Amino acid sequence: MLPVTLPLTPSQTVGPFLAIGLPWPDGPFVVPEGTPGAITITGQVIDGAGVPLPDALVETWQADPDGRFDHPDDPRGAVAPRAAGFRGFGRCATDESGCYRIVTLRPGRLPCPGGAQAPHLDVSVFSRGLLDRVVTRIYFSDETEANATDPVLRAVDQARRGTLIAVAEAGGHDRFVFDIRLRGKDETVFFDV
Amino acid sequence: MTADPRSAEAGLRLPHYPRPDGVHPPLDYPDYRSSQLRAPSQPLVPLPQQLTEVTGPLLGAERVTAGDADLTTRHAGEPLGERIIVTGRVLDSGGRAVPDTLVEIWQANSAGRYRHRVDDHPAPLDPNFDGAGRCMTDSDGRYRFVTIKPGPYPWRNHLNAWRPAHIHFSLFGRAFTQRLITQMYFPGDPLFRYDPIFNSVPDQKARERMISRFDLDLTQPEWALGFTWDIVLRGASATVFEPQGDR
């Protein structure tokens, strides 16, 4: 165990002007546009009065389609993704209508104590009014079997579990909708991580 | 082809990044008015740190050029205001440097005005200042920016509300759990005691860790004042990753 010696720097809000410093032109593209098999996740970030946020930032982090990370702290070993240009990380500021968009590849399942985790993305949301980021997860509505045994989903109150599941648009498996409700009715589940 | 993720994964060791209590501000903080409609009302659900949480994006070098760390040389003329050097190290709570990590900053100009369409503070924009910068930390975890000192500015949180001068900082570290966005303040600001964002951090010592230090050794004669500010992200301890249950 590493002794904890230095006290942490506290979080502060991104404020209303994050668009000056954080958005990247290629931010929403976890994989380059046109990558075979790419999926698109879109949604709105919505406040407790039902009003979309025009000044939020959504970030995503995920495994590659084989369930691997190109990262030295993955104890199975760092593996370069097979898809060219796969970054694992997405970042998108919301627009005037509170919408964000992430273009990516569906992540693979991941091992965990006692079983496997269903395909998921970790999500950070930043905005004015949030003194710290809030963290949630995106799962996929067409992964019914994997979702049913996912230990994180199972630990969430069943009535709220649906807030973590991106819904496939009718007739397809490549476009998903995932709204993030910060507060109030149908409030998204946020995690303490 | 993907192997069954339940097989052959016994004994994986994962780092763990403890989140200490009392350091970060509470999400629900009524003195900060816009938290009232945006902070979640339900308790956070504990998320065990697994593979997705202990890994994170290791990127940035490909999107940073040397000039990105100097906010004073982007235009034909120099920005107005006090030229400053801001430097420090990004560390983890174990005292280890965090090298090669992307640091992104944004700030108001010297008059307290942001170059942003919704900032209607009647202070002048500076045609020679955009207010955004980025750099990678070096092998010692060090970052360095040249900029101008941002001005304080009014906001509408309450009557006569003014933000102390600050620079926004965004840090990745090397794991999702280490991600941090914060603000760096300047020593001796008379607005600290009135600012709900600064005071949302419950512990006084923790608040003081957001304040940079004037550094005469860093100050360059006839050129720029120096401010030093170290940033500490969560550190990792090792835990054993033990699949159980169906094994």
Structural class of chain B: mainly beta
The total count of helices of chain A amounts to 3
Q: Output the radius of gyration of chain B.
A: 21 Å
| Helix and strand sequence of chain B | EEHEEEEEEEEHHEEEE
* Major sheet description of chain B: 5 strands, mixed
**Main sheet overview of chain A:** 9 strands, mixed
**Relative strand content of chain B:** 25-35%
Inertia-based shape of chain A: globular
Beta strand count of chain B: 14
Number of strands of chain A: 12
How are the secondary structure elements laid out?
The complex is a heterodimer of chains A (193) and B (247).
Chain A: E1 39-46, E2 56-62, E3 89-93, E4 99-104, E5 110-112, E6 115-117, E7 121-127, E8 134-140, H1 144-148, H2 151-154, H3 158-161, E9 165-168, E10 175-177, E11 180-181, E12 191-192
Parallel strand pairs in A: 1-10, 1-11, 8-9
Antiparallel strand pairs in A: 1-4, 2-3, 2-7, 5-6, 7-8, 9-10
Chain B: E1 12-16, E2 45-46, H1 51-54, E3 83-92, E4 102-107, E5 132-136, E6 142-148, E7 153-155, E8 161-163, E9 166-171, E10 180-185, H2 196-199, H3 204-208, E11 213-214, E12 225-228, E13 231-233, E14 237-241
Parallel strand pairs in B: 3-12, 3-13
Antiparallel strand pairs in B: 1-14, 3-6, 4-5, 4-9, 7-8, 9-10, 11-12
